[in-house]
Design a protein that fits this description.
The protein is mostly helical. The protein contains 12 helices and 2 strands. The longest helix is centred in the N-terminal third of the chain and has 15 residues.
Length: 213
């Protein structure tokens, strides 16, 4: 719930950031302390639309999840040993291709060690876990207020547009966020809530279905 968040020392240096701090003074960066549980959806979200990742997550949760305590019609994620045993055809039915499936299986096999140490270098030592995925995991599991999702399709453009009125790439985003070192993820959360986004041009990306391959 963010009780361990430490926003002290955070200083808003742009008008849009100051405005969002005023509107959302209670924003806290929470943490679950469940590294593997955060890793699975983060891997599913790699390089795909959110709808594709949600479809895969929903299928596998319905198929292998466990009844939630007190709410048997709901499902909670299965433990790592169950993820490690999911057969290839079930991954395919979920719409998740083999590369991401292998990443989750390998992580499930060492899940115990991940829970002991969620440092970025430990996460990125796993095949299939890069800088974007490691940041997403640390945001959710460790409540890392400084973890930036470098490599995100939309984030650099959003940050650039909100702060200087034009889209930037990853390098430009990191330069803009440098004054907020220690709180860069906090700033991206505030900017996402501002509603300031670059105008959309061209068609939307199509929703792919790996089950048809």
């Amino acid at each position: 719930l963010g009780a361990a968040d430490e926003p002290e020392g955070f200083v808003a240096r742009h008008d849009v950031v100051r405005e969002q701090v005023r509107k959302r003074p209670g924003l806290r960066i929470g943490r679950t302390r469940r590294v593997f549980e955060a890793l699975v959806p983060a891997v599913m979200e790699q390089k795909v639309l959110g709808l594709e990742a949600f479809r895969a997550w929903s299928h596998l949760l319905r198929r292998f999840g466990e009844p939630a305590p007190g709410a048997p019609h709901m499902r909670v994620p299965p433990p790592p040993e169950v993820w490690a045993r999911i057969p290839s055809w079930e991954w395919h039915r979920s719409g998740l291709e083999a590369v991401r499936a292998r990443t989750i299986i390998r992580a499930a096999q060492v899940a115990g060690r991940l829970e002991e140490d969620a440092a970025e270098d430990r996460l990125r030592s796993l095949p299939g876990i890069g800088v974007w995925t490691a940041a997403e995991i640390r945001q959710r599991a460790a409540g890392d207020a400084d973890a930036v999702s470098v490599g995100d399709y939309n984030l650099p453009g959003l940050v650039g547009w909100a702060l200087i009125g034009r889209k930037v790439d990853d390098a430009g985003m990191l330069e803009l966020l440098e004054p907020y070192a220690g709180h860069r993820y906090r700033v991206t959360r505030l900017l996402e809530s501002s509603g300031r986004r670059p105008p959309r041009r061209g068609p939307r990306l199509p929703v792919r279905d790996y089950r048809a391959f």
